[in-house]
Automatic annotation (TrEMBL):
<dbReference type="InterPro" id="IPR013525">
    <property type="entry name" value="ABC2_TM"/>
</dbReference>
<protein>
    <submittedName>
        <fullName>ABC transporter permease</fullName>
    </submittedName>
</protein>
<dbReference type="GO" id="GO:0016020">
    <property type="term" value="C:membrane"/>
</dbReference>
<feature type="transmembrane region" description="Helical">
    <location>
        <begin position="198"/>
        <end position="220"/>
    </location>
</feature>
<keyword id="KW-0472">Membrane</keyword>
<feature type="transmembrane region" description="Helical">
    <location>
        <begin position="369"/>
        <end position="387"/>
    </location>
</feature>
<feature type="domain" description="ABC-2 type transporter transmembrane">
    <location>
        <begin position="17"/>
        <end position="385"/>
    </location>
</feature>
<feature type="transmembrane region" description="Helical">
    <location>
        <begin position="311"/>
        <end position="328"/>
    </location>
</feature>
<dbReference type="GO" id="GO:0140359">
    <property type="term" value="F:ABC-type transporter activity"/>
</dbReference>
<keyword id="KW-0812">Transmembrane</keyword>
<keyword id="KW-1133">Transmembrane helix</keyword>
<feature type="transmembrane region" description="Helical">
    <location>
        <begin position="16"/>
        <end position="36"/>
    </location>
</feature>
<dbReference type="Pfam" id="PF12698">
    <property type="entry name" value="ABC2_membrane_3"/>
</dbReference>
<dbReference type="InterPro" id="IPR052902">
    <property type="entry name" value="ABC-2_transporter"/>
</dbReference>
<feature type="transmembrane region" description="Helical">
    <location>
        <begin position="275"/>
        <end position="299"/>
    </location>
</feature>
<feature type="transmembrane region" description="Helical">
    <location>
        <begin position="241"/>
        <end position="269"/>
    </location>
</feature>
Amino acid sequence: MSIFQKELKQLVNDKGALLSTLLLPFVSTMILGFALTNSFSSEVSFEEVSIAVVEASTLEDDLQVASERFSISEDELLPLAVPDTLFAYMDSEIGVDYYSPDDDVVYKDYTAVIEIPKGYRLMLWHEQLGEEWSEDMESFQLFLNQEQRQHAMMVQMMMNSYMEQVYAHTELAENEEIAADFGNVVVQGNSPLTSFEYYTYGMGVLYVFFTAGLMANFAFTEKKGKIYGRLVLANIQPVNYLLAKFSTSCVIVFLQLVVLFGLSMLIFQITITNWLSFIAIAVVLCLTVGSVASLLVAIQFRANTEKVANVFMLLVVSILGFLGGSFFPSSNLSPLLNEIGQFTPNGLALQAFIQAGQGESIAHLSHSLIYLTTLSFVLFVFAWVVFPNKGGIES
C-alpha cells in the first residue's frame, strides 16, 4: 500500500504528464471526429444494410390460416406478425427481400439472412393471443455477414432488442396487464454511429495502451535513479512493486476513460444506453492495460533497457490501432483484418464499447469480458515470472 501511495503522489506531482495523458485521447477524438464526419457517416448509413428473409410459408398464407383459426381479421393479426413488424418499421431505411426455401439466395449479398420455419408465425400468434401451443417449434435463424461486420452487429442488436420486447409483451398479454397493441416497437441501436461516437471509443481503447508504456518508462527511470534499489533494501517484495505499477496503471486508465467519455458526452452528445455493460468493459480494459504495463516493466528490468517500452508505444500500439479498428473500421479494408482485429484487446474492447453504448447486455458481452479478464491474468502472471528477483539489482 505504501508503494501505491508513493506512485499516486508522484503522479499528482507531475501535473504536466498527467494532464497530457488524460486529455490527449479527447483531443485526438475531436480532430478525427471533425475531419472524418462526412465520410464516416456515409460508411455506417443504414441504406447499405440489406436483409434477406427465407420463409417456409408466406406472410399472406400464414395470415389467412390464422384468421380462420382465431376468427380474427387479417388486419388485426398483421401488427402482431413476427418478425415482419420490425421490417415494416424499418422498411424506409433497410432493404428487405423475401425468398422461398427453393430460391437460390446468395448470402454474401446481404448484411443478414433470416430463415423463418413453417408455422413460426402461427406459434407466436397463439402465444400473443393467450392460446396454448403444444407442438415443438424452432425459432427463426439469423445469419450475419462477417464481411459487413459493423452493419451486421447493428442488425443483430436490433433483432435481440425486438425479440426481447416480443416476449415481454407476450408475457404481459397473457397476464392481461396490457392491451394487445403490438404495433409500436422501439428498436435499440437503430441509429448509425457518428464519427465522434466511433472515435471516442476508438481513441479511448488505443491511448490507454500508451499509458502502459509510460508506466514502464517511469519504472525504469526509478531503477536508474536508484529509487528501486532503496525499495529493495527496504525489503519490498518484487511482486508488491509490480502490483503497485499494475494498480497505478489501472487508476490512470480509469481516469483517462472518465475524462474522455465525460467530455465526449458533454460536448459531442454521445449517449450510453447500458451503463452496467459499459462500466464492466471499462473495468476489464483497465485490468488488461495494468497487466501490459506490469509485463513491460518486467521485461525492461530483465533486459536492463528502456527501449522495450519505446518500441511498444511507437510500433506495437500503432499496429494494434490499425488491426483493432481504432483509426477506421478495419472491416472496410478486409474481412481478414477485421477477424484478426477481434483478437486484439483494443479491437475487442472497441466493439464491446460500441455494443454497450447501444444497449447490449452483459450476457451478450460475456465473451469479451472473459477474454480480457483472462488475458489480464495471464499477462500479469507472465510478468511476475519474468521480473528479476531483485529487479536486476546486484546483491
